[in-house]
């Protein structure tokens, strides 16, 4: 029932560190803010534990939804990076599919939990596609880095929220 | 002499003075020469200390004499060296002379003179101290130098400047007590390097001529040495940040050189998205050069921008920024309380908490590991990692465990037991095999059954209840004669004879009727006359569709010692057309009806038709009566050979002409060609009773009693005759081929009940769709009595 994003973690880390090392100075600029920043997410364990699980599920759903579109574009745009190793390409595709599956699963779960209909409220549109298609290689790479950095963080967030939920619902907070 | 004189004079004077003194005034006291010194070996001076003056002003006079001379001289100069001194200038100084100097104090009353002083110029040389000592410091590259400069002691004479002095310098930091003395040489300057930065030094110099003594130390000079270069501190670096449990974290930095001054470090951070800069909340908890962020100050999923600033009196320096996201720096402490246990479990070793060779244990806190090599020593270490994004902790301390090797005994026991058991089992199995070998073989490989008469219970036969059997069979005259017994054949041979009378069916239709028989391997026994496959092909004209019946060599019958007549008679020839059609009055053709093998009981010889019927019923779905009338277009899978005669009419006519001829005509199934195969069926023979036209023909299935009938077969005219049954029609109509040799009653066809009625087709009755034509006699002759083995088509006669 619970899907884990743990798979995405090392992938994102690889993708980030491989191409966009800190030496490039990207990380200094990378705190530009992710497009999902507008979703108010709990920032630590206590906050996450205090949120009602329905809200948490909705939040997770919102994040997953918000990432659906960017991942699609990421998978297609990443192929245009010069000298991109093969692994990046198929990993990007894999992540995108994984996200879709996750989203479907989560929607099912939420559908079950929520007797009512699943609200589509929480969703952040992504407008970063042009930045992935910039002509300047460096700027484009930086855009990728930023996106991946946000993806890594968000997937980690979702992973943690799911774990909190699991702990709460299955183990009665005994984990 | 002179000194004695002087001294005596002095005594006198002194006496006089004392005499006078008694009056209150006396002669002066005795002066004392303090010292004599030469500055430069060319002049010298003496100083004296006057005694009491006796109340009256005294005059001092210095008298000296050289040791080599008696002459007394007076001091040439009383002024230069100051009061109470005498200065001997160059002209009066002889360095190699010893001077005896006396000072006399004189007043009105008397005089007094000092003790004479022997002065050796060379021994009293002592220059003055150098003067004009000046000090300077210089600091370059954190090293301080001290420059000392002075001047030689001044002398009255300029010529003294040519003297060469040796100098000595001494210095010490102000606080210290010990001087550091440096021999300078003859120069008047000196550089000191080994200085303590920041200390105040006192410096003095003195000089010396080649003779004599060192001068006094010059006046002190003090100087402050600077404290080297005061640099601002170098840039510190942040070493690492770690979070042990994902709720707090700590950062460590490494300070660089402090530039000689004490430095303070401060850690400043700012969070992602915020401008405000905070300072480290706790410098102490995690040790020196660290900063500990507690729960309140730890936020996840935010990037911290952390820097360290080092400050000293000269300035400050900031490290490079370090970006940290707490979620990615989680590294737990290594696991503790590791216990290793070795357990013997029946040839397995169980080791707990083992993680060598970096086996991933997952999330358990226990791990079992098997298949360890005995006798080896294992080192165990464990480390852990939080979920998937953290870092592996440090390895726990090594633990050692040794796997003993003494499990072989149990191992052997097991194998021994296994071996014994298996050998026992093998013995039992072989014993069983031996005892019941046959049965088992029979079970495994069923033997090929020999042919038996269908419908005849051998057991019954054996038991001799022949009557019952016969009655069951509806036959009489049992047991069969020996002839027939001889005719019993167990099998049918297909002989490759010249005659090839019975040829296997060809696919190509031939004009001859072919009757192909297939021998069945039906287990039912057959009577001697029940040659299953004796099916002579009747020579019939007309087209014949190939029937898939395999013709059996009639000659097989020969082998059985059949009466030759049979054979010849039963010879069927495919190739032969049906010549007998025309001539033979007998039916040459006979058919051995093949019954489907699943026709078990063939007792009912009586009713061949029934047999046929049953056969037909039980044959293939597609099968249909072989005998097919015109209107019937059945597939003839029926193993009955069919003969089609074109000239049925003719035959019939012919037959008609011969009333006593039985004409049988077999009309071949139009679609016989579609009957490609014939089930190997038994060919049974039907005993045909000649039937008068007015009689009901009967067919008797041949049996073992056929031997008797064989006679009859051979002997024409008997009432019984064996006629070949060509086909069965309508499941109840037996088409027989009349025996032309004998005066067969016309075989009429009639529906046959379940009795032993033999349906025969009568010439006259053309009810059926077929008629029987008499086969040619010649055919008949050659063919012998045609008979049909009825067992095959005997219905289940129990």
Automatic annotation (TrEMBL), chain A:
PROSITE patterns: SOMATOTROPIN_1 (PS00266), SOMATOTROPIN_2 (PS00338). It is found in: Secreted. InterPro entries: 4_helix_cytokine-like_core, Somatotropin/Prolactin, Somatotropin_CS. Its main location: secreted. It comes from the Eukaryota. One of its GO terms (cellular component) is extracellular space. The keyword Secreted applies. GO terms for biological process: positive regulation of cell population proliferation; positive regulation of receptor signaling pathway via JAK-STAT; response to nutrient levels. Pfam families: Hormone_1. GO terms for molecular function: hormone activity. Keywords: Disulfide bond, Hormone, Secreted. Belongs to the somatotropin/prolactin family. This is Prolactin.
UniProtKB/TrEMBL annotation, chain B:
Residues 1-21 form the signal peptide. One of its GO terms (molecular function) is peptide hormone binding. Residues 30-128, 129-228, 232-333 form the Fibronectin type-III domain. GO terms for cellular component: external side of plasma membrane; receptor complex. InterPro entries: FN3_dom, FN3_sf, Growth/epo_recpt_lig-bind, Ig-like_fold, Type-I_Cytokine_Rcpt. Residues 541-568, 697-718, 738-798 are annotated as: Disordered. The chain crosses the membrane at residues 412-435. Keywords: Disulfide bond, Glycoprotein, Membrane, Metal-binding, Receptor, Repeat, Signal, Transmembrane, Transmembrane helix, Zinc. It comes from the Eukaryota. One of its GO terms (biological process) is positive regulation of cell population proliferation. Pfam families: EpoR_lig-bind, fn3. It is a single-pass type I membrane protein. PROSITE patterns: FN3. This is a receptor for the anterior pituitary hormone prolactin. The box 1 motif is required for JAK interaction and/or activation. The WSXWS motif appears to be necessary for proper protein folding and thereby efficient intracellular transport and cell-surface receptor binding. Belongs to the type I cytokine receptor family. Type 1 subfamily. This is Prolactin receptor. The gene is PRLR.
């Amino acid at each position: 029932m619970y899907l884990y994003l743990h798979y995405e973690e090392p992938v994102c880390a690889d993708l980030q560190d491989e191409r966009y090392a800190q030496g490039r100075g990207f990380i200094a600029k990378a705190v530009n803010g992710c497009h999902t920043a507008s979703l108010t997410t709990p920032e630590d364990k206590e906050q996450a534990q205090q949120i009602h699980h329905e809200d948490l599920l909705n939040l997770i759903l919102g994040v997953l939804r918000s990432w659906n579109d960017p991942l699609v574009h990421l998978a297609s745009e990443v192929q245009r990076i010069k000298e991109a190793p093969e692994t990046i390409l198929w990993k990007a595709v894999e992540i995108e599919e994984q996200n879709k599956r996750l989203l479907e699963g989560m929607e099912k779960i939420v559908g079950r939990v929520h007797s009512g209909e699943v609200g589509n409220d929480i969703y952040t549109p992504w407008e970063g596609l042009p930045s992935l298609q910039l002509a300047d290689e460096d700027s484009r790479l930086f855009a990728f880095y930023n996106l991946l950095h946000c993806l890594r963080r968000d997937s980690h967030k979702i992973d943690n929220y799911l774990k909190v939920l699991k702990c709460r619902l299955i183990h009665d907070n005994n984990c | 002499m002179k000194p004695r004189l002087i001294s005596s004079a002095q005594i006198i004077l002194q006496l006089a003075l004392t005499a006078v003194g008694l009056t209150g005034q006396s002669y002066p006291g005795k002066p004392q020469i303090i010292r004599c010194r030469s500055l430069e070996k060319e002049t010298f001076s003496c100083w004296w200390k006057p005694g009491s003056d006796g109340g009256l002003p005294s005059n001092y006079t210095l008298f000296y004499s050289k040791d080599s001379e008696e002459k007394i001289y007076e001091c040439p100069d009383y002024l230069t060296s100051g009061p109470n001194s005498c200065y001997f200038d160059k002209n009066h100084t002889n360095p190699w002379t010893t001077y005896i100097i006396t000072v006399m104090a004189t007043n009105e009353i008397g005089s007094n003179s000092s003790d004479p002083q022997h002065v050796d110029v060379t021994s009293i040389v002592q220059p003055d101290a150098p003067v004009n000592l000046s000090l300077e410091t210089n600091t370059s590259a954190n090293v301080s130098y001290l420059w000392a400069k002075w001047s030689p002691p001044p002398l009255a004479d300029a010529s003294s400047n040519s003297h060469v002095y040796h100098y000595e310098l001494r210095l010490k930091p102000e606080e210290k007590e010990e001087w550091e003395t440096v021999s300078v040489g003859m120069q008047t300057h000196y550089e000191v390097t080994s200085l303590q930065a920041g200390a105040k030094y006192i410096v003095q110099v003195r000089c010396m001529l080649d003779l004599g003594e060192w001068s006094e130390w010059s006046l002190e000079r003090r100087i402050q040495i600077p404290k080297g270069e005061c640099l601002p501190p170098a840039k510190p670096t942040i070493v690492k940040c770690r979070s042990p449990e994902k709720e707090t974290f700590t950062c460590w930095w490494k300070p660089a050189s402090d530039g000689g001054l004490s430095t303070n470090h401060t850690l400043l951070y700012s969070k992602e998205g915020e401008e405000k800069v905070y300072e480290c909340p706790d410098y102490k908890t995690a040790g020196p050069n660290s900063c500990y962020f507690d729960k309140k100050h730890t936020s996840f999923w935010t990037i911290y921008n952390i820097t360290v600033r080092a400050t000293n009196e000269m300035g400050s320096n900031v490290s490079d920024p370090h970006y940290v996201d707490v979620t990615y720096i989680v590294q737990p402490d290594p696991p503790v309380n590791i216990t290793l246990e070795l357990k013997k479990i029946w040839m397995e070793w169980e080791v707990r908490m083992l993680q060598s060779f970096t086996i991933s244990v997952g999330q358990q806190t226990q791990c079992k590991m098997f298949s360890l090599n005995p006798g080896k020593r294992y080192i165990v270490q464990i480390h852990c990692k939080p979920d998937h994004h953290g870092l592996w902790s440090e390895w726990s301390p090594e633990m050692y465990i040794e796997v003993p090797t003494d499990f072989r005994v149990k191992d052997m026991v097991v194998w021994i037991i296994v071996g014994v058991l298996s050998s026992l089992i093998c013995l039992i199995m072989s014993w069983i095999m031996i005892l019941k070998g046959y049965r088992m073989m029979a079970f495994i490989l069923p033997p090929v059954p020999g042919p038996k008469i269908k419908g005849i219970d051998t057991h019954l036969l054996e038991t001799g209840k022949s009557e019952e059997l016969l009655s069951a069979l509806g036959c009489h005259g049992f047991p069969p004669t020996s002839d027939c017994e001889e005719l019993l054949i167990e099998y049918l041979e297909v002989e490759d004879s010249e005659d090839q009378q019975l040829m296997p069916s060809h696919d190509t239709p031939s004009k001859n009727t072919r009757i192909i028989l297939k021998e069945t391997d039906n287990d039912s026994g057959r009577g001697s006359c029940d040659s299953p496959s004796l099916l002579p092909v009747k020579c019939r004209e007309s087209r014949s569709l190939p029937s898939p019946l395999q013709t059996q060599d009639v000659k097989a019958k020969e082998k059985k010692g059949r009466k030759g007549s049979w054979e010849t008679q039963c010879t069927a020839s495919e190739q032969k057309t049906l010549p007998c059609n025309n001539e033979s009055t007998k039916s040459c053709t006979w058919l051995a009806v093949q019954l489907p093998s699943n026709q078990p009981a063939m007792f009912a010889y009586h009713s061949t038709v029934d047999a046929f019927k049953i056969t037909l019923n039980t044959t293939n779905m597609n099968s249909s009566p072989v005998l097919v009338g015109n209107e019937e277009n059945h597939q003839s899978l029926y193993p009955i050979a069919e003969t089609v005669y074109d000239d049925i009419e003719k035959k019939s006519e012919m037959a008609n002409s011969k009333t006593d001829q039985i004409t049988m005509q077999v009309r071949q199934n139009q679609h016989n060609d579609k009957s490609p195969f014939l089930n190997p069926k038994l060919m049974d023979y039907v005993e045909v009773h000649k039937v008068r036209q007015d009689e009901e023909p009967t067919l008797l299935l041949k049996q073992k009693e056929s031997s008797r009938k064989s006679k009859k077969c051979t002997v024409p005219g008997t009432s019984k005759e064996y006629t070949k049954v060509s086909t069965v029609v309508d499941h109840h109509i037996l088409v027989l081929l009349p025996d032309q040799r004998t005066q067969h009653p016309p075989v009429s066809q009639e529906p046959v009940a379940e009795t032993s009625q033999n349906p025969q087709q009568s010439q006259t009755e053309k009810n059926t769709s077929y008629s029987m034509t008499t086969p040619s006699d010649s055919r008949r002759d050659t063919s012998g009595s045609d008979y049909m083995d009825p067992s095959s088509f005997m219905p289940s006669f129990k």
